[in-house]
Write a structure and sequence with these properties.
The chain is of the alpha+beta class. It is built from eleven helices and eleven strands. The longest helix is centred in the middle third of the chain and has 53 residues.
């Protein structure tokens, strides 16, 4: 924006500089033309007077001396025609066509004394002529070959000086426009940066109140809006967390009352009804747990976005052994997998013999793997589940692949949405929050969750994290 404003102002200043230069240069040219014309016409009038008074040969001899002195002094030629005789001084050529035309014009008692406006590209010489005689006839004429070189050089020098001065003034105005533009646009850029950081981090940014009064007021308004937005988001997160926590007490009380009723009831149909109530209470508890974990995951994602501007050693990430965490989670899920008829197989696909180090949070990686394994066991019972850790140049990828029914392309487009469940598993118990939680936690750890599947060929979930490079290992040591 600043560049566009400067381009517009620069174009306007350039137009003004050109117009001012043209006006001043024309004034210089006009003044120089008037000065030389007045001077040369005075000289021409003097020689006309001397020529008209010359009668004898001695007078003509003295006139020739005057002519020679003038030509040597001003480097300008003279041609005087007096009663058929021609007196010449300087390098004027009587046989020249232009000179002949000037003499002919004077013979018609016509004066040719106007000097055209002098500019840096004017001709070096110009002819002026004036006839003399009595009231009855023309006795002769005086033709002067005016040398305009010095006048042209003076016009050129003055014009160049004016151009330089005007350009300097224009450059000064352009510099002033640049400073003024920077002063006006600096708070605009600050507002843009603050809004972008607010959209990424959901945290208010204190704006420096600079620039014109209107922009200072705008900065205050944006700061107040950002603070109100951050407060509202924080209140929403706290409301979700507190609501989930507070609902646990009445749910626990209901479960206790159901257990007491089961002890008192003896009819099978009453017991079956209470079992249905217990099932619904279990779903409510699962939903509360999922909402709370999702709120925590999204809070961590916002924290990670806010930490992007910090150095790596100040972020809430640590070096973790991805393979070790995977093995530990497989051991925790092995009993459940065995009960569902699943076989968990960890493939040794890493390239090095040492630990597979990645940047992240170990507890959150364990949560992500727990969600993915739970989904695989729940929705693909009785099949082989392959797990592996792969090292790449910049990333570490942890894969959980089952060989169950898989998902359609349409389902994959919505799988990360809150409370969304596929059409093939809608009858199974669940909250529709597991993949959403894994997605948020993966991004909160500077990585991503990638899902790939074809109908009938199983689902492959990949958690990609940034790898700890050799240079970073040496730096940390």
């Amino acid at each position: 924006m600043r560049l566009r404003v400067l381009l517009v102002l620069g174009a306007l200043i350039s137009v003004i500089v050109v117009l001012v230069c043209a006006a001043l240069a024309q004034g210089v040219s006009r003044d120089e033309t008037v000065s030389i014309q007045v001077n040369r016409l005075a000289s021409l009038a003097r020689f006309v007077q001397l020529s008209s008074q010359a009668q004898s040969d001695d007078d003509l001899y003295m006139l020739q001396l005057e002519m020679n002195t003038y030509s040597e002094l001003y480097d300008e030629a003279l041609l005087i025609v007096h009663n058929g005789r021609q007196l010449v001084s300087g390098d004027i050529k009587p046989s020249d066509r232009n000179v002949q035309e000037a003499i002919y014009t004077a013979g018609l008692n016509l004066e040719q004394s106007k000097i055209s406006e002098i500019n840096p590209f004017s001709h070096e010489q110009i002819l002026i002529t004036r006839p003399f005689g009595n009231s009855a006839q023309v006795l002769g004429s005086v033709t002067m070959q005016v040398n305009l070189e010095q006048a042209r050089l003076r016009v050129l020098q003055k014009t160049a000086a004016l151009v330089l001065i005007t350009l300097s003034i224009g450059a000064g105005f352009l510099l002033l426009a640049d400073r003024l533009t920077a002063w006006v646009l600096r708070p605009v850029h600050s507002l843009d940066d603050a809004v972008q950081r607010l959209s990424k981090t959901k945290r208010p940014v204190a704006l420096e109140e600079v620039g014109p009064p209107e922009l200072r007021q705008l900065s205050r308004s944006v700061s107040q809006m950002a603070q109100a937005m951050a407060t509202s988001l924080q209140q929403q997160r706290e409301l979700i967390a507190e609501t989930s926590h507070q609902l646990r007490n009445p749910v626990a009380a209901l479960r206790l009352r159901v257990d007491l009723l089961k002890m008192r009831l003896s009819k099978p149909e009453d017991v079956e009804g209470l079992q249905a109530v217990e099932l619904e209470l279990g779903r409510v508890e699962s939903l509360l747990d999922g909402v709370l974990r999702l709120a925590t995951a999204e809070h961590r994602l916002n924290e990670q976005a806010a930490d992007q501007s910090l150095p790596r050693d100040q972020r809430k990430l640590e070096r973790i052994d991805a393979e070790q965490i995977l093995i530990e989670e497989v051991e925790r899920q092995s009993l459940r997998a065995e009960q569902s008829g699943n076989q968990l197989m960890v493939e040794a696909s890493k390239k090095s013999s040492g630990p597979v180090l990645a940047w992240g949070n170990g507890f959150e990686l364990q949560q992500m793997l727990a969600e993915l394994l739970s989904n695989a066991i729940k929705y693909a019972p009785g099949v082989l589940i392959n797990l592996n850790v792969q090292e790449f140049e910049r990333t570490v990828e942890i894969q959980v692949q089952d060989h169950g029914p898989g998902m359609s392309a349409t389902d994959l487009e919505h799988v990360g949405e809150r409370f969304w469940r596929g059409s093939t598993v809608s009858s199974s118990p669940g909250t529709g929050l597991g993949i959403a939680i894994v997605d948020r936690l993966a991004r909160a750890n500077g990585g991503e969750l990638k899902l790939a599947s074809e109908q009938g060929s199983g689902l492959c979930a990949t958690i990609s994290l940034r790898r700890v490079t050799k240079a970073e290992e040496v730096e940390d040591e």
